[in-house]
Amino acid sequence: MQSSSSKHFVLVHGLAHGAWCWYKVVTELRSAGHRVTALDLAASGVHPAQVDEVGSFEEYSRPLLDAVAAAPEGERLVLVGHSHGGLSLALAMERFPDKITAAVFVAAAMPCVGKHMGVIPEEFMRRAPLEGLLMDCEMVAIKNSQGAGVALHLGPNFLAHKCYQQSPAENLALANMLVRPGNQFIDDPMMKDSSLLTSGNYGSVKKVYVIAKDDKSSTEDMQRWMVAMSPSTDVEEIAGADHAVMNSRPRELCDILIKIANKYE
């Protein structure tokens, strides 16, 4: 039985991943007596849609939006987003600020009020060295209701050296078996709407950024740049964490999540 102090964590994966990547964190949080929901966004994990069947970023984020909307009256959630999943988190925060007690961005894309969400991938590309940026990742041609585009399939060398270099070998093996092509929705109109995120909704939700100190996919400088864009954001750091923080440092991440949930009632 869960205690009256138990919290409901909703975990959102990054690009090309699925709910499966959170299995260590789910186990830790449930062992501590908390309720946990790990979601598959559309065309991710075991979600039945294929990547070219998902026509928009809104549709991609729909599993999260539906889960937050369905939360019972009076139950306030702790949303946790990883990597590209931070953008879906932001959309849920804008739509349902009163249902969320805190939002935690774990080495994640964290947009700010007053700028469109596409600023984050644009800045990432501006800062990233061109040589070896995507390594053996493959660009997969897709066509959905918005027209022709590309999805990204993360290659095994990219996963090994940019995302999972501090994680146990079995986690890298699992990722290589389960990642699916992911659409960043860079040309989606929602990504270019600078009025989408408002101070009254998105800006009113308490934000915490968890910096992965050994992230080779998104540098610490890039993570701190996003924090500086939203100066009211609290910051936690995890030494030795690669981009796949939930695999390389699950215990440390869970300790931070529980501390956040206890702090923001």
TrEMBL record:
> Which segments constitute the AB hydrolase-1 domain?
9-255
Q: Which InterPro entries match?
A: AB_hydrolase_1 (IPR000073), MES/HNL (IPR045889)
**Which one Pfam family would you cite for this protein?**
Abhydrolase_6
Any single biological process term in GO: jasmonic acid metabolic process
Q: Which GO terms describe its molecular function?
A: methyl indole-3-acetate esterase activity; methyl jasmonate esterase activity; methyl salicylate esterase activity
Highest taxon listed in the record's lineage: Eukaryota
This protein is called AB hydrolase-1 domain-containing protein
Q: Which organism is it from?
A: Zizania palustris (Northern wild rice)
